Amino acid sequence: MNRKTLVLPAVAGLLTPVLAACGGSDSGSKSGDAIVVGTTDRFTATSEAPAPVDPAYAYDVGTWNILRQTVQTLMTQPRGEGMPVPDAAESCGFTDSGSERYACKLRDGLKFASGDDVTAEDVKYSIDRALRLKADSGVSALLNTIDTVETQGKREVIFHLKTADATFPYKLSTPVAGIVDPKDYAKDKLRDGFDVDGSGPYTFKADVKDNVIVSATFTKNPSYKGYVKVNNDKVVMRSYDSAEAMGTAIDKGDIDVMTRTMSPAQIQKLDGGGDDKVDLVDMPGLEIRYLAFNTNAPTVKNKAVRQAMAQVINRGEVVSKVYGTQAEPLYSMVPATLTGHSNSFFNKYGNPSTAKAKELLTKAGITGPVKLTLHYTTDHYGSATKQEFEILQKQLNGSGLFDVTIQGHPWATFRPAERKGQYDVYGMGWFPDFPDADNFLAPFLDKDNFLGSPYSNGTIQRTLIPESRREADRLNATKSLTEIQDTVAEDVPVLPLWQGKQYVAARDDITGVSYALNSSSTLQLWELGRGVSG
């Protein structure tokens, strides 16, 4: 097996006006053979979430990886790493010194896949729609610094921001800012089901059974004008119930590529050269896992309980027993590789200590084991999640300070229940919307946060987050970002556990695999091609 490793350059500072590259869909594989990609992501429409792939609603890595192929955004995250670049836009940039006015000019001749023109009014409609609908997924919070959207002619869009936001170009690269056709997306209602229409590199058609996508076909959009070069004509994505079933499929040649989520055992086997027809590619990733708390729940309302958990949990043991070299312990919500990271939890709690945890509980007047249920999702973050929670349960119960049970749920019921506050403690993962420290803090701590968490800290929301966003040079935001992380370590509304690498496995005639994911776990199907088997 030839193992290929991609090392991405470090994240740089933000954000100057940029011009579009000369990408497009006028090239690509002529083989005619669809490249087949496997995933364990589940795409389900339910009564509680009937519109899973509407850009104004979708807010998980799986559905975003559908939308990033199909619904075009003004900006996009480039191959590898770095600042966002124009996609639907010809050029974009701040037009003032205070990072409060951002202007974009659309590419000339831009069209939806249907053939309709894409205009500045469509951009305004799409952004205003997401903000108006304010879906309970929390995704519209990414756009909450927008005050008004103005158009000038058919091609110019101007965003007037409420406050300075140097991260705003990144936010325009996320699917919630995707440009939709008013003919297909009502302004006051989410679009139910699995239909997706846009002006992105591909069109999309889903094969659905019992309200679940079984497979999906991405066909190159001949009308696409944008940054990326499309290297294939068609990609089929198949959803599998388990990593093991997906692994069997690639061994048999039923699929060409495995994406998320492979099991640790599969990765270890491929990493050791266990298959001469399948190559494993690892790349830096910004995926994190954490525990979240409903801070209004009686069991964990007292922060001493949350602090005691932070004091007992042994991240190193979780990583070594479950993930090995595929992950690293994490002591902040901000990954260690990003500018602004601080080891705030280690600085406060040091090494795991039952004695210190007991002291925290005693000072708070809490005696006897604290009874808790830790909830986790069985089908969203990989098969190793159950083992991870079994170890967390053993650690907490082994201290004698907790009486913990664990309970798993499918994502389709887990996420709605979490948003309704039905779980006191639950395990979550985060794949960033964009590679900046702000995106590992604001989504959990700002108003209208992603978790629907009742935790609120006025200093963080009114002072520290706005301060950090004023700094175009992200090094200058470190002081504010560190203070936020220190506050999180003190109050523990969330408890970081580990940071992981990301992996793609592919049969050896598939090219472009090293760029199939970027650091934000964005699936870039356009990079894949079919070469010659070696």
Task: Please describe what this structure looks like.
By secondary structure, this protein is of the alpha+beta class. The protein folds into 3 domains: 129 residues, Dipeptide-binding Protein, domain 1, CATH 3.90.76; 111 residues, D-Maltodextrin-Binding Protein, domain 2 (3-Layer(aba) Sandwich); 213 residues, Dipeptide-binding Protein, domain 3, CATH 3.10.105.10. 25% of the residues lie in helices and 23% in strands. The protein has 14 helices and 21 strands. The strands form 4 sheets. Strands 1, 3, 10, 11, 12, 13, 14, 15, 16, 17, 18 and 19 form a 12-stranded mixed β-sheet that branches. The chain has a 5-stranded antiparallel β-sheet with strand order 2-6-7-9-8, covered by helices on one side. Helix 6 runs antiparallel to helix 9, helix 7 packs antiparallel against helix 10 and helix 13 runs antiparallel to helix 14. The chain is globular. The N and C termini lie close together (10 Å). The N terminus is likely disordered.
